[in-house]
Please model this.
Amino acid sequence: MKNWKDVVRKIFNTIFTVVLISWVVIVFTDYMNAKNDKPLKFCIKEFNHKYDDGETYECVGLGYKMYKYNRHSITAKEFGPIFIRERQDSTGL
Model:
């Protein structure tokens, strides 16, 4: 019979591994969807920011953000970690 601490440790490691692999699959899926101009599947919050020269779409996911700019001053997509901030113009300031 195994020590109960070893059994608990093995269960914890298995659960942690499954959660980590699931998170990687989620981030990779949304990254590929963003790259191919498809809607993101695992968006927790979505925002549309309106400006005088257009708008910016923001999607917040599990540890990542995606911005899609449709403005005269900038037309681009950004996908990155949760702490990235929205660009205000084409210089990033």
